[in-house]
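hey can u check if this looks right to u? its 402 residues, i copy pasted from the old doc so theres a chance i mangled smth
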Amino acid sequence: MNKKFLMTVGIGCIAMVALAGCGCKKKSKEIVPEQITEEQSAGLIPYNEPENASKITGLACDNFNKRSFGVMYSGSNDARPYWKNLDQADFILEMPHRMHNEPRLMGVFQCNIPNVEGPMRSGRIDFLSVADSLGAVFVPWGKSIVTAAAMHKGLADNIEVGNGTTSKDGTRAGFIDPNIHFYSANAAYADLNGVIKMSKDKGYSSDNLFTTGFKHQGEIAMDKRPEHGTVDVKFDTSEHRVKYEYDKETNSYKRFYKGKPSIDSASGKQYAPKNIIGIVTKRDSWLAEKDYTAEGLMDPWDGVPADHIESNQYPNMQLGDPWFDTVFEGPAKFFMNGQYIKGTWKREKGKNQPFKFYDENGQEIHFVPGQIWMHVLPHGQKVGYEDEEEYQDRMKDEANNQ
């Protein structure tokens, strides 16, 4: 037999005996489990948020550490064609401003500082409260009697602008455009450059106060986006009804008003927020005969001249403000990434307390990076949704009925 072969076999046997004698085993490769983030475990799309991201939108922003400003916009039918730069707002609130259902809007600006915002109108308590929740300076053109008292008492930082309003150094902050005429009011506009200087004149902080911020996730892959999705904001009257059509290419929701695209008059672009929030909550009215302090609330009539106190003029939407509300949570609907999510909103009672949004499982909502448009409606109205399957079924029914 080959001596080389015998020597090889012998060495192998000696090695096996030695291993057996010492009780050693071949060490298996250690398998380290893949690190799973909280977002991935919740089914969220990972998103590497830039260091200079806005706490509102999650997008990179030169002004990410600067104060935001909540500018009031008119919601009347004749003013809507003249909206300017609302598409540049980071957050938009749309909500009824009287006991009837005509809405007004507030555009919250942080990243962008356009020199024209409006047409503007007067402010209401609920808009002041939401601005406060975002750490924004509230900027109306006029105010209701209750809001006037709240602003005067400094319940939240505010700057009222009017025609010819300027900062101390003469920078324009409020003006009327004489070339625009419509029925509801003058074409009143703000210039944020002057408003920012007025804020400094008043000694308000110029730093971002919305430090908690919203959470964000990435955008859904193109091949997973639905072909159709309609968000229907149903006010009591069709006059103010708004629809959003999901756009697969941009992963946004194109806004329609009275069946026509809703266009910004400054940019010429159709409004297309990345995220939509729908909240339906209790709507109270301010009552002259009600004792608010007996309920542990502030007196809304404190500081209002006696001859101006009048019931049932303006609404108080229950959105958890720290002064006059008794409701601090409720149902909410969220639309983003082509998906409909049922959930809730919550606020702690106190100054500058932010909204917190959750899904049905109690997981905090992660918004898609981009603009957020929040609709608030009173009970009896709703925000509806038609998904792709429902749309296809409707199309078949309509075809069969022709």
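The longest strand covers residues 174-181.
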